[in-house]
Amino acid sequence: MQNPILSGRKKLVRYFTIWITLGILFFFVMSYFVPVERDFLAVDIIMQNFIMACLMIGMWYPINFMSWESQKLSYLIFNHLLMFLLFAFSWVSLTHLFLRLIFPGQHINDYISGSVAFKIPFCFFAYIVFVISIYLLKYYNSYIEKKEIESRLSESIQEAELTLLRNQMNPHFIFNSLNSISSLTIIDPDKAHDMVIKLSDFLRYTVGYGQMQKVPLKKELEMCEAYLDIEKIRFGEKINVEMQVAVEALEIEVPSMLLQTLFENAIKHGIYNSLNPERILFKARVEENRLELIMENTFDLDGGKKVGTKTGLKNIKERLRLMYKNLAIFENQVLDNKFVVWINIPVN
Fold first, then answer.
1. What sign does the CA torsion over 83, 85, 86, 88 have?
2. Contacts of 301 (CB under 8 A, 6+ apart)
3. Domain 169-346 carries which CATH code?
4. Has UniProt tagged this entry with the keyword Ribosomal protein (predicted)?
5. Within the chain, which residue ranges are assigned CATH 3.30.565.10?
6. Using a CB cutoff of 8 Å and minimum separation of 24, what contacts does 332-336 make?
7. pLDDT digits (tens, 9 = 90+) for 233-281
8. Contact predicate 247/287, CB 8 Å
9. Which residues of 80-104 are buried (b: 16+ CB within 10 A; e: fewer)?
10. What is the SS3 assignment for the chain?
11. Cα separation of 214 and 255, whole Å?
C-alpha cells in the first residue's frame, strides 16, 4: 500500500505546510512563556519539526500494519510503546545533534537540558495524534473501498438480473411467425415473402438495439412497428393500432424491448381469441420531467380468455424497479372490456 503522504506532490507540500504552520505557532508560544534565546529556539523548532515530519513519513509503514484486527490489544499497546520509544529517541538525538553542530559550546548544552522537559510530552502528543490520524485514514479508505466494491457488486448483480429479465422477454411470437410463414408458403407465397422481410427487420433491431438496457423511444417504436407489421399479416384486420406520441417524448430513453412486450401482451390476450376487430391504443407524453406511457387494448368479453403466466408484466415491473429504484410507477387494471397498463418513469 502506498504511503498517502508520498502519493502526490500536492499532498507532500500540504503535509510539510502543516508542519511549518505548527512550527510558527509553537515558536510564538514558546518565546512568550519560556525565557530562551530566540535564535536557539527558532533553529530548534525548525530542526525538530523537519526531523519529526520525516520520521513520521517512515513510521507510517510499520504503524499501518499494526491494528487490533491482526493482533491482540496487549501486543498492540506494547508494540506502540516500543515504536514511541524508538521514535522519541531518534527524534531527540537527531535534533540535539544538529543543534550542537550549528551552535557549538557549553551554552547550547544548557538549552538542550532545559528543553527536554517539554520535548518528551510534545513528542508523545505528536505520536498519539499521528497514530490516530493513520488509523482514521486507514479505516476511512477501507470504508470507501468497501462501499465501492459493494456498489460494483450491486451493479453487476443488477446488470445480470436485467439481462436475465430481458432475455426472458425475447419475442415468443418468432416461433408463431415461423409457423405462419411455413403455412403461407403454400396458400399465399407473397404474404410469406413479406412476412420474412418484416421478421428480418425485427430481428435486425433486436440484434442492434435489443442488447442495450435503454434506447430512445423513437427506436423502440420503430421496432414495435416491425413487430406489428408481422402480426398484421397473421391477424389481418383484427388489429387496429393507434399511436399518440408527443414529439418531445421521442428522444427520451426507455428500457429496450419494453413496448414490444406490452404490444405482445395486448395481442396475446386481446386479439388472439377475439372474433371481432380489437383496438390497441398507445400514448406517450412528457409531464413535469417524467415520461408517461399508456397502453390500452380492448378484448372480447365473450371470447375464451387466453390463460397466461403474466411473466411479461412481472418482468416489466421488475426491470423498472431495478433500473429506476422507487422512481418508476407501474400499474395495470381492467375497465370493462379494456385492459390498461400505465407506466410513469423519470426522464433523467
1. positive
2. 336, 337
3. 3.30.565.10
4. no
5. 169-346
6. 336/301
7. 878 888 899 999 999 999 999 988 888 888 988 888 888 878 888 899 9
8. no
9. beebbeebbeebbebbbebbeeebe
10. CCCHHHCCHHHHHHHHHHHHHHHHHHHHHHHHHCCCCHHHHHHHHHHHHHHHHHHHHHHHHHHHCCCCCCCCHHHHHHHHHHHHHHHHHHHHHHHHHHHHHHCCCHHHHHHHHHHHHHHHHHHHHHHHHHHHHHHHHHHHHHHHHHHHHHHHHHHHHHHHHHHHHHHHCCCCHHHHHHHHHHHHHHHCHHHHHHHHHHHHHHHHHHHHCCCCCEEEHHHHHHHHHHHHHHHHHHHHHHEEEEEEECHHHCCCEEECCHHHHHHHHHHHHHHCCCCCCEEEEEEEEEECCEEEEEEEEECCCCCCCCCCCCHHHHHHHHHHHHHHCCCCEEEEEEECCEEEEEEEEECC
11. 4
* Surface-to-core class of residue 253, CB atoms within 10 Å of its CB (0-12 exposed, 13-18 middle, 19+ buried): middle
Residues 178, 176: Cα–Cα separation, whole Å:
5
- Give yes or no for a contact between 291 and 344, defined as CB atoms under 8 angstroms apart: yes
pLDDT digits (tens, 9 = 90+) for 248-258: 999 999 988 88
Stated pTM of the model = 0.53
Which cell numbers hold the place of 274?
377475439
Is the dihedral angle over the CA atoms 249, 251, 255, 260 positive or is it negative? Answer: positive
Distance of alpha carbon 192 from alpha carbon 230, whole angstroms: 10
Residue with cell 399465399: 188
Q: How many residues does the chain have?
A: 348
CB of 333 closer than 8 Å to CB of 313: no
253 compared with 134, residue with greater pLDDT:
253
Q: Are strands 290-298 and 278-287 parallel, antiparallel or unpaired?
A: antiparallel
C-alpha–C-alpha distance, residues 326 and 343, integer Å:
13
Residue 94 · residue 51 · CB < 8 Å: yes
Phi and psi for 198 in degrees, rounded to 5?
-65, -40
